[in-house]
Amino acid sequence: MKDVIKQALTRRTNQNAATTEETQPSERLVLGVKFAIAMTLCLSAMEIAHMALLNKWNSEIFAAITGSTGTLTGIFITQKT
After folding, report:
1. Which bin fits 55, alpha (ψ -120 to 50), beta or left (φ > 0)?
2. Residues pairing with 21 in the sheet
3. In a designed cystine with 9, which of 21, 25, 43, 70 is the match (CB 3.0 to 4.6 A)?
4. 25-57 tens-digit pLDDT
5. Per-residue exposure over 14-42, b if at least 16 CB sit within 10 Å of its own CB, e if not
């Protein structure tokens, strides 16, 4: 299976009309993005469990989810340009 995250972070530049050069992202960046995605999923599951069991909204978990999502968005936007 191809690595979807690595493919999404690959930078492509057109040299001419016929040639395209690809720059692969570093392994640290790919692992960092995978970790951030995993943490976002875990935090979302924690928030869902908190709401299901305690019937309350936890603003601290939501703040962590928001920060993680913002970090991921920033990584993808800055890596592509």
Report:
1. left
2. 13
3. 25
4. 888 888 888 988 898 899 999 999 999 999 999
5. eeeeeeeeeeebeeeebeebeebeebbee
**In the chain, what is the straight-line distance between the N-terminal and C-terminal CA atoms, in Å?**
26
Interacting residues of 36 by C-beta distance below 8 A, sequence separation 6+? 68, 71, 72, 75
| Sequence spans of domains, the chain | 26-80
Cβ contact 36:68 at 8 Å: yes
- CA-to-CA dists, residue 71 to 15, 42, 48, angstroms: 31, 16, 21
Token couple for 43: 């935090």
Identity of the amino acid at 14: N
